[in-house]
Structures are given as structure tokens and as C-alpha cells.
Amino acid sequence: MTRVVTERLDVIPLLAEVFREHGFEGASLAIITDRTGLGKGSLYHFFPGGKEEMVAAVLADISAWFETNVFAALADPSDPKSAIVGMLDSTDAYFQSGSRVCLVGALAIDHVRDRFPDAIKDYFARWIDTLANALRCLGQNRSEARSLAEEIVAGIQGALVLARAIDDPEIFTTTIRRYKNRIITL
Amino acid sequence: MTRVVTERLDVIPLLAEVFREHGFEGASLAIITDRTGLGKGSLYHFFPGGKEEMVAAVLADISAWFETNVFAALADPSDPKSAIVGMLDSTDAYFQSGSRVCLVGALAIDHVRDRFPDAIKDYFARWIDTLANALRCLGQNRSEARSLAEEIVAGIQGALVLARAIDDPEIFTTTIRRYKNRIITL
DNA sequence: CCTGAATTTTACTGATTGGTACAGAATGTA
DNA sequence: TACATTCTGTACCAATCAGTAAAATTCAGG
Q: How confident is the model at residue B77 (pLDDT cuts 50, 70, 90)?
């Protein structure tokens, strides 16, 4: 039986969770070896560039996931309304109803964002662009669509911050529901 | 000529800026001594509890600033509409039109939030509560007011994340303007 | 000037940091 | 079996970490 994925790929989700929990600086190699079960030797074998390469790999993985599970439907103009609703559902699931941190957002406000500027920029730019595209398919003009897309993407990020700050994930769920209603009644 | 403030107080804004830029883990004592001009000895003289006490002092300072310059007007029901607009103006000024990080928000999504849970919780809770109070004075019922207050506070945080992520502070300014219009036409 | 407290400088500690080197174990292949 | 490649555990490195201790200095009040 052939292994479908290499071990490098298997480790990326674990790395993602560690960086989510501790941030870039906070995620020490000691913690990483603990959580992944890989010694330093293995870690540097798979990621010769060290922590920086690990984060880059995690960002690429996240980007790919969103491309497949979130952005693809938005970019397809066949049924824009249910595509947006589906995006909000996927988002709710991905962020575990507000109890999971957005790693890209967390990196964005950290000073290490300067080491991954493109990955961070692209993630949000693609989200806004595809969402705005779907909104245009619903009859909004270019600036309306872009403005609402920015509002929704920012609202999601803010809800994640707020939910975590006051320790009440319900705030995130409420936010998602609010945007859903707004789209449905569009 | 008597000095009005102790040097401890003078240092707190500098500390705030360092923590904003580097986060809790990223702000090493070396960086802090650099930026404040105080050696380790002086730092530990003023803040015997080390970095943790420094952050606590910064959070208290921020909290006091918002209480005076933002929340006070919201809590006073004499002119709720202009109080909210004033809050949005103060917020825009404080966050330098989106180019300044919200330290409380940044700490909230970091794992060090567990060391300052009350300060973080109180900051956002007080913001939401006073804003909801002002909205009730504008005729909204309790749940409407709370929901919109949460939406605005979260929207502000999200706009800060997004503005920084795609390196476009304009997004923050737009967000503030959007909420202003929404309040004015209420 | 003297005294004592406040403050700062300096030197130091032990622990931990990210990263390297490399021997050898495991694995796949012929 | 034999060989080459991939992978991993371990020891090690210099740098940096937060924090301590105490001498040196500054400074205000009497």
C-alpha cells in the first residue's frame, strides 16, 4: 500500500495549529517538536528553511484550502447567492464557529507580516475579489460590490477577534448569520 | 519646576508602541531598553514584575484613555448621535486612520491573552456596552442596540486587521465613514 | 556638607533560542 | 544481499532570552 501523501504534508496541519496557538515568535522549536512528534533533525530535513519555511508551507496549505472550498464557488457565476451563503457556511465551519484563530489575520497584525507580505495580501485580496465578483453577479455595481465584500471580510476577521477577546464564540456565529440574512434579502 | 508625572508614566506610551510593533513575545528586553532608553535595572525598578507588569500598565493606560476620550461621551445620554459620531472620530484618530495596531485586539488573539483576560474583556465589553447604551437612547431596543454595537466594534477591529493585511489604511477610513453614515441616517 | 533614598549602570546568571553537524537507523530498490 | 536514499536522534553551537544583584551615581531635604 502506497502512501498517498508524504510525511511533510501530514505535518503541516499540526504546524498550522501550533502557529495559530502561539504565533510565529511564540512557537518555539521545542513546542513544535513536542506537538509534531518530529525531532529537530526531521523538521529541518523537511523544512530546511526553518520556521520561516514552515509558516510559508502552512500559508500555502491554507491558501489552497480556501481556493478549493471557498473561493471556487464564489468565482463561478452560476448561482452567486447560494455560493456566498456556502462561503459563509464554510467559513463558520473552518473557524469552528469562532473558537479558532485566523492564522493569516494573526500574522497580518504581527510584525512578522513583513516576512510573508504576498501570502497575506493574496489571501485577503482573493477573498475580497471573488466575493465582490459574486456580488456583482447579484446586480451590484463595481464599487458597491467591492465595498460590501470588504465589509464582510473585515467583519469576519473582527468577529474572530471580538469572540476571542470576550471569550464568547456566539458573537462569531451571530455575525455569520447577519451576513447570511443580508445576502438572502439582497 | 516640579515634574508633573513620574518617569514611570512617561515610559508607558513608549512601551505601548513597542508592544504594538512586536507583540508580547516579540518585544524583548533588548528592544525595550533600546526604545525607552532605560536599562534593565531601571526597567525592573519601575516594573518589578517584568514584561507582564509593563503590559498591565500599558493596558491600564489605554483603558483610561478610552474611558475619558471615547466611552464617557457614549455613556452620557444627552446627545447620543453626536456622541457616537465623536466616538468614531476619536477612534479614527487613535488608530491613525488604520495604520496603528490595536494592542488589545492583538493581545486577544495571541495566546498570552490568558494572562490579561480581564483587561482585554473589560476593554471590549465597556466599548460595546456604552455604544449599545447610546444606540438605545436613539430608540433601538435592547437586542437591536447590542447587536449593532457588536457589529461596529467588531467591524473596527476587522478593518484594522484588513487594512494592515493588504497594506491599505484606506479600508479603515472607509469603514469608519460607513458606520458614521449609518448612525446619521438612523 | 551629610544622609538616605531613588535611580541607573554594569556585570552576571542559568535557561532557552534557532540552527548545524553528523552518525546511524530505516527504507526502498536492484 | 548490497547499495543508495531518506529520515531521525543526539550532541552541540553561538546568540539571545528574562531576570538578578549590587556597585555607582544622582538627587532632594535637612
A: confident
Confidence of residue B161 (pLDDT cuts 50, 70, 90): very high
Chain C positions under 7 Å from a protein CB?
7-11, 16-23
What pLDDT is stored for residue A3 in this prediction? 36
CATH code of the domain in which B69 resides = 1.10.357.10
**Domains held by chain A: number:** 1
Query: Is residue A17 included in any domain, yes or no?
Result: no
The three cell numbers locating residue A84: 456566498
Interface of A with B (CB under 8 A): 21-23, 25-26, 101-102, 104-106, 108-113, 117, 120-121, 123-125, 147, 150-151, 153-162, 164-167, 171, 174-175, 178
Is residue A7 assigned to a domain? no
B25-31 contact pairs (CB < 8 A, 24+): B25/A23, B25/A25, B25/A26, B25/B110, B25/B112, B26/A25, B26/A110, B26/A111, B26/A112, B27/B51
* pLDDT higher than threshold 90 for residue A123: yes
Mutate to test the interface with B, among A144, A148, A150 (most CBs of B within 10 A): A150
- pLDDT (tens digit per residue) in B130-156: 999 999 999 999 999 999 999 999 999
